[in-house]
Design a protein that fits this description.
The chain is α/β, with parallel strands linked by helices. The protein has one domain: Phosphatidylinositol Transfer Protein Sec14p, CATH 3.40.525. It contains five helices and five strands; from the N terminus they run ββαβαβαβαα. A five-stranded mixed beta sheet has the order 1-2-3-4-5, with helices on both faces. The chain starts with a strand and ends with a helix.
């Protein structure tokens, strides 16, 4: 399940993937939010940041979803996009690193980390500027993830 938070002033999108499944609608929502952030990134000299936090139980995207993400990434228009993936899985971090070696648009820098703190340090080094809003964005996205299942449950009960 996808939840996300965005700071327009900082140019930072944070997506939080939790739960045991991801729907095609989750990916459509992500691409919509990312497209809006990319559009705003066209007006930013410092580019745009996408922090992707994946919980331990969340599955990898299937082949079709990976292809959609790669196609979308190849069409990013902001002068520079920084993508920081945060996951405890060393396998996923390794796969992301390998994919970036093989194909990465010139205006996209991606790296994968085991902790949010490490990702924030990389973003501060690569993009520069203050990234202190990132933990707040994560808390907002985590709260959305907790509220969404409860709301679905209430809607069904009503």
């Amino acid at each position: 399940m996808l939840s996300f938070a965005y700071s327009r002033s900082a140019g930072i999108l944070l997506s939080f993937w939790s739960g045991s499944n991801n729907s095609d609608d989750d990916y459509e929502r992500l691409l919509g939010a990312w497209a809006r952030a990319d559009d705003e990134g066209l007006r930013r000299f410092d580019g745009v940041v996408h922090v992707v936090v994946v919980s331990a139980e969340n599955p990898l995207p299937d082949a079709r979803q990976r292809r959609r993400l790669a196609d979308f990434q190849s069409r990013l228009r902001a002068q520079q996009t920084y993508i920081a993936l945060v996951t405890k899985s060393p396998v996923v971090r390794g796969v992301i690193t390998a994919i970036q070696w093989i194909s990465r648009p010139a205006n996209v820098e991606t790296d994968a980390y085991g902790t949010l703190d490490a990702a924030v340090r990389w973003l501060e080094h690569r993009r520069g500027g203050d990234m202190s809003v990132v933990p707040t964005l994560l808390r907002e996205a985590q709260l959305q993830a907790q509220v969404a299942p409860a709301m679905i449950g209430r809607a069904r009960a009503g």
